[in-house]
Amino acid sequence: MNKYDICVIGGCGHVGLPLAAVFANGGKRVIINDVNENVIDLVKNCKVPFMEEGLEDLLKNTVGKTLFLSKEKKVISEAEFVIVVVGTPVDEHLNPVFSTLKKFFDEIIPFLCNGQTIILRSTLYPGLTKKLNQMLKETGKEISVCFCPERILEGRSIEELHNLPQIVSGFDQNSIKKVSDMFRIVTKDIIIVEPIEAELAKLFTNTWRYIQFAAANQFYMMAEDFGADFYKIHHAMTYNYPRTKSFPKAGFAAGPCLFKDCMQLSAFTDNTFFLGHAAMLVNEGLPNFIVSCIENKTNLSEKSVGILGMAFKSESDDIRESLSYKLKKILQIKARQVYCSDHFVKDERLIPEDELIEKSDIIIIGAPHEKYRTLNYKNKHVVDVWNMIRGKQ
At the topology level of CATH, where does 4-193 sit? Predict the structure, then answer.
C-alpha cells in the first residue's frame, strides 16, 4: 500500500501545481516534490506563486489534507503514480536539449520502485517517450511509462483540466487503463493513442496556433505597408463569415511553449519545416517591425518610449519568452529613453503606468491587459497592435 497515490515532481510550477491540486481535490493523496523551498513554503500557506484562477481556493481545500509538499526525493518512492513535468527545452541554436531530461531521470532512478507508473506531462521531442521507457527497462525495475501531455491555457488551468479531453499513451494496456481511470477523476473524455502520436499531437497543436498567429501578424505588416487599417480588414473578413471566424488578431505570439515547440518540430523534420521557420521569422520579427514603423514617422533617437505590458500575454504575470522584453532591447538602442510598466509583473525596473504615460512621447502596448483599455493616454501617440484602445470595429 503506497502512502500517496500521486507524486508530482517539480510540482510547484505552472503545469504541476494546478494538476496536483485538482487531483487532491478529487480525493487522491498527492505529494508535491520540488527543490524550491521558498515556493514550497508559499504553497504550504495556501499562497499561489503565480496567477492562476481558482487555484488558491483549491489549495485551501486540500493542503495538509490530501495535498502535501516535500523537497526530499525519497517521497518519490512512496507513490503509485509519478508525474514528471520536466520537458525538452531548446538551446540558443534552437536545437532540442535531451541532456536535461536524461540528467533528471539519472537523479530520480534510485528512488523509483517496482510497480510504479511514470506519467510524462510536459512537451517531449518525438520518440523521447520510447527512449525513456527503454532507459528505465535497462535498470531492471518494473516501471511503466506513459505520456499524457498537458493541454491547458495558463491562467485557466483548473477550468480546462476539467473541460478538455486528456490524451493518454503508453506501452502496455494495463498502465494505459490505470492512467486513464486516474484522469477520469479530472475529465470524462480520454483519447488513447500511441506515444509517438501523442508527442506529435502536442507539437502539432502548439505549432498550428503559432502559425495562425504568424499569418495574422504577416497580414498586419502588409496592411501597414499599404497604409491600410488591418482591423477594418479583419472586421470585414470575419463579421458574420463562418470560414474566417477563427482568424486571430495581430499581436506578440510569445511565451514558453509555442516558439519552442515549433522549433522542436523543425528539428524533428531535419530543418525542412519551412512553414514553421517562416512563422518564427514573422512572429519574432514583429517587435522590429513596430520600431521600424515608428522610425519612418519620427526621429526615434529624440523620443522617450514607454512599453505598457511586459508579460507574454494578457492578464498574466508570466514574462517567460515575452516579446515585450525583446522590444525593450531594440528600443534601448534606438530611442532616447525607454520606460516599462506592468501591474501584474514583479520587476523592480518597472514604473507605474501613470508615470510612464507622463514621461513617454510614444507608448507601445506590449501585453493587452484589460486595464489599458480605459487609461487616460493624454493624447500621446499610442502604438496599439492589439486594437485595444479603439475597441472592436
Answer: Rossmann fold (3.40.50)
